[in-house]
Design a protein that fits this description.
CATH architecture: Alpha-Beta Complex
Organism: Halospeciosus flavus
Number of domains: 1
Protein name: Enoyl-CoA hydratase/isomerase family protein
Number of helices: 10
Shape: globular
Family: Belongs to the enoyl-CoA hydratase/isomerase family.
């Protein structure tokens, strides 16, 4: 479930599945893409309900995938992350609590990432024989550099808010992410999307995403053998 709260200059989107740590189903991915794309405000704040930001893909869905459906699920997640990255609105990820796997990818798709002191991050897919296939293999190195990206991806270790700030996974550690969204929204609404697109411009996305989806599908197929 996705909760939408439109304020004066900020649309607040809350992933509202606390009983599943806000894990992402195909339907929730689609709802999230639509809610960001049609935002009437210059800024969107994305957050999670309960004790987690987002646990990533819902494994109740992943466990039922075969090779072809796994590839489709990867592509679906990529479309959502791209919708966030390509939206006119500036999207702020306010990470409070755990971001895991696809939850880290979701934060990476946002334009501004901030964490509360209670936030933690981990790319846990490797321990399950999988990896994030929603654009994370491109966005994570872009955010933190290749060396740190490989460390986080290959160890699956948990990073606290202070280390996330140190390596560039988030830009600030704050008590209330709403304050950051409001600070962005206080600026000129016409300048924000233009500046965002100039910084975000990247011609390598399509090929990397195809390779991600194929590799993810191969791994899901191997788990089912």
């Amino acid at each position: 479930m996705l909760t939408v709260d439109d304020r004066e200059r900020v649309r607040v989107l809350t992933l509202d599945r606390p009983e599943r740590r806000n894990a992402l189903t195909p339907e929730l991915l689609d709802d999230l893409a639509a809610a960001v794309a049609d935002a009437p405000t210059p800024v969107v704040l994305l957050r999670g309900a309960g004790s987690a930001f987002c646990a990533g893909a819902d494994f109740g869905v992943v466990d039922d995938l075969d090779r072809e459906s796994a590839r489709r699920f990867a592509r679906r997640g990529q479309r959502t992350m791209n919708a966030i990255e390509d939206a006119d609105a500036v999207v702020v990820a306010g990470v409070d609590g755990a971001a895991r796997g696809g939850g880290v990818e979701l934060a990476l798709a946002c334009d501004v990432r901030v964490a509360t002191p209670d936030a933690t991050f981990a790319e846990t897919g490797v321990s399950l024989g999988l990896f994030g296939a929603w654009g994370g293999t491109r966005r994570l190195p872009r955010a933190v550099g290749e060396t740190v990206a490989l460390d986080l991806s290959l160890t699956g270790r948990v990073v606290d808010a202070a280390e996330a700030r140190e390596v560039g996974l988030v830009s600030q550690v704050v008590e209330d992410p709403t304050s950051v969204a409001e600070a962005v929204a206080a600026n000129d609404a016409g300048a924000l999307p233009r500046l965002k697109r100039l910084v975000r411009e990247d011609g390598s996305r399509a090929e990397q995403e195809r390779r991600e989806a194929d590799a993810f599908a191969d791994l899901v197929d191997a788990r089912n053998d």
